[in-house]
Specification:
The protein is of the alpha+beta class and 457 residues long. Strand 14 and strand 15 form a beta hairpin. Helix 2 crosses helix 7 and helix 9 packs across helix 10. Strands 6-5-15-14-13-12 form a 6-stranded antiparallel sheet, sandwiched between helices. A 4-stranded antiparallel sheet has the order 1-2-3-4, with helices on one face. The chain folds into 2 domains: 91 residues, no CATH class; 288 residues, DD-peptidase/beta-lactamase superfamily (Beta-lactamase). It is built from 13 helices and 15 strands.
C-alpha cells in the first residue's frame, strides 16, 4: 500500500512538472495562472470582435494574429455571433469572456454587471461628397508609377522577411503619391493602430485647448488627487509622460498595462489609483495609463461619454475627412485612447497631414498652431527627452532615434510596427501598418522611401 502511494505521488509530481513546463513553453506563468487566463480571454474577445466587425477579418486571420503574441492563444476557442455582433472566447473552457460591437462606436469588453454603453448612440453621420480629391474626399489618387514600384518592392521584402506588412502609403505636399496593400487588405480596411491612438488623443486635448476648456499647465486634474501630492501633476506632464505616476508598462499577464486593457471595465481606473513615484516632470516613463487619464479628462470636460463621442466624430475626425476611423471606448464609455483605435491607411495619413499642417486640414482648424508647435518640443525630463505630446521625436540628447531621417522627423508608433512618420522638412507623411511579431526596421524602410521621393524631384 505504501509503495502504491509513493508511486502515485511521483506520478502526480511528474504530471505537475509536465503541466508547468507546458505553461512556461507558451509564455504562461503557473504562479499567475488566473491573470494569464483572464488577460488571454479578454484580449482574444476584444481583438476578435474588432477584427471581425471593424477590419472584416475571418477567424483564421484573427487567431493567427493573436497567436503571434503567445502560443497559448492556440488554445483559445473563438466564436463570433454575427446576429448579436459579439465575440465569445474561452481558454480550454475557462474564463469565458465576450466583447460586443456597436455600430458607429466599435467593440468593448462586456462588463460583469451593468453596461454604460447601452445608453450611448452613434453620432449622426454627415452627407459627404466622396468625389472630392484626398484628403477631403475619397476620389482615387493619381499615383506615381516609380514610387509605386518602390513600395511594392518593400511590401514584397517585408512579406519575405515575415514582417506581415499590410499597408504602405506615401504622401507629399498633400497628395497620395503611392500606396500598396497586402492580399486581403484594401484602402477601405480599418487596421489596428495600437499606441498610435495616443497621438489622436493629444490632438483631442488640443481641440479642447483651442476652445478654452483647458490649459496644459493646469493642476488638480481629478478629485481623487486633490488631497495628495498628485494634485501637482499637470496636463503637460500627462501629455509628455512625465507624470511621475507608478504605472508598469510591462506587457505580462497581471501587469498594470494588461489589467488596464483586458481586465478592467474602466481603463482609467487603475492609473487614477496609481501612487506618485517621482516628482512630476522629472522623469519620462512611457505609460499607456497616462494617456487613458487624458481620455478620461476629455470625457469629463465635454460632459460625459455621449458628448465625447459626438465631439470626437462630428468636430474632429469627420471634418478631417476621417470617416473610416473608430476610437473605441471601454465598458464605462470612456475612450481607450492609449490603444483601441482602428482606421484605414488613408485615414492614418489624414491624421499625419493634420499634424504636418499644424493642426489644420481641409480648411478646418482642430488645434492651435501654438499647441502643435509645443507638441513636438522635447520634454524636460532628466532621462529621455525625445518625446513630445504623445509623439516620438527623432532628435534627442543621445542622438537621433532614426539616424537616416531628417532631424525634425517625428512619429506616431504602435505595437507590431504601426507607424505614421511625419517629415516636416520634406512636407511628407508616410504610413506603415502591419502585424510584425519582430522589430520593424523603421529607420531603413522610411529612409529608402524618402530617397525614392527625392529622386522624383
Amino acid at each position: 500500500m505504501r509503495k502504491l502511494l509513493i508511486r502515485s505521488l511521483f506520478a502526480l509530481l511528474g504530471l505537475c512538472g509536465v503541466v508547468m513546463a507546458g505553461l512556461y513553453s507558451v509564455g504562461m506563468s503557473p504562479t499567475s495562472l488566473g491573470a494569464n487566463v483572464a488577460v488571454g480571454t479578454g484580449m482574444g474577445a476584444k481583438l476578435g470582435c474588432s477584427g471581425r466587425f471593424l477590419s472584416g477579418f475571418d477567424n483564421t486571420r484573427i487567431l493567427q494574429d493573436l497567436a503571434s503574441y503567445s502560443p497559448a492563444f492556440d488554445w483559445l476557442s473563438l466564436d463570433i455571433d454575427e446576429q448579436t455582433k459579439r465575440a465569445h472566447v474561452s481558454l480550454m473552457g475557462l474564463a469565458k469572456t465576450s466583447a460586443t460591437y456597436r455600430e458607429g462606436i466599435g467593440c468593448s469588453l462586456d462588463p460583469g454587471d451593468g453596461d454604460e454603453l447601452t445608453q450611448l448612440a452613434a453620432p449622426r453621420a454627415p452627407v459627404v461628397n466622396d468625389d472630392r480629391p484626398w484628403p477631403a474626399g475619397a476620389a482615387e489618387p493619381i499615383l506615381n508609377e516609380a514610387l509605386m514600384q518602390t513600395l511594392a518592392a518593400s511590401m514584397a521584402q517585408d512579406q519575405a522577411e515575415g514582417l506581415q506588412t499590410r499597408a504602405l502609403v506615401v504622401v507629399q505636399r498633400g497628395q497620395i503619391l503611392a500606396e500598396t496593400y497586402a492580399p486581403g487588405i484594401t484602402p477601405d480596411t480599418r487596421l489596428m493602430g495600437w499606441s498610435m491612438g495616443k497621438s489622436l488623443t493629444a490632438l483631442m486635448l488640443g481641440w479642447l485647448e483651442q476652445r478654452g476648456e483647458l490649459s496644459v499647465d493646469e493642476q488638480r486634474l481629478f478629485d481623487e488627487w486633490s488631497a495628495d501630492e498628485r494634485a501637482s501633476i499637470t496636463i503637460k506632464d500627462l501629455l509628455q509622460m512625465t507624470s511621475g505616476l507608478d504605472f508598469s508598462e510591462v506587457y505580462v499577464p497581471g501587469s498594470d498595462a494588461t489589467r488596464m486593457l483586458f481586465m478592467e471595465s474602466s481603463a482609467a481606473s487603475l492609473p487614477l489609483q496609481s501612487p506618485l513615484k517621482y516628482p512630476p516632470g522629472s522623469r519620462f516613463s512611457y505609460s499607456s495609463g497616462t494617456t487613458n487619464l487624458l481620455s478620461l479628462l476629455f470625457t469629463q470636460r465635454v460632459g460625459g461619454p455621449q458628448n465625447a463621442i459626438n465631439h470626437l466624430y462630428q468636430d474632429i475626425l469627420w471634418p478631417l475627412g476621417m470617416h473610416d476611423t473608430n476610437l473605441e471606448p471601454d465598458a464605462s464609455g470612456v475612450f481607450v485612447g492609449s490603444s483601441n483605435i482602428y482606421a484605414t491607411a488613408r485615414d492614418w495619413a489624414r491624421l499625419g497631414e493634420t499634424f504636418l499642417n499644424q493642426g489644420e486640414l481641409n480648411g478646418v482648424r482642430i488645434a492651435r498652431s501654438s499647441f502643435m508647435r509645443e507638441l513636438v518640443q522635447p520634454n524636460a525630463s532628466g532621462n529621455d527627452r525625445a518625446y513630445g505630446y504623445q509623439v516620438w521625436l527623432n532628435r534627442g540628447e543621445m542622438g537621433s532615434r532614426w539616424p537616416d531621417l531628417p532631424e525634425d522627423a517625428y512619429a506616431f508608433t504602435g505595437n507590431r510596427g504601426q507607424t505614421v512618420m511625419i517629415l516636416p522638412s520634406e512636407q511628407a507623411v508616410m504610413v506603415r501598418l502591419g502585424w510584425s511579431a519582430k522589430y520593424y526596421p523603421r529607420n531603413e524602410r522610411f529612409a529608402h522611401w524618402l530617397s525614392a521621393l527625392a529622386s522624383q524631384g
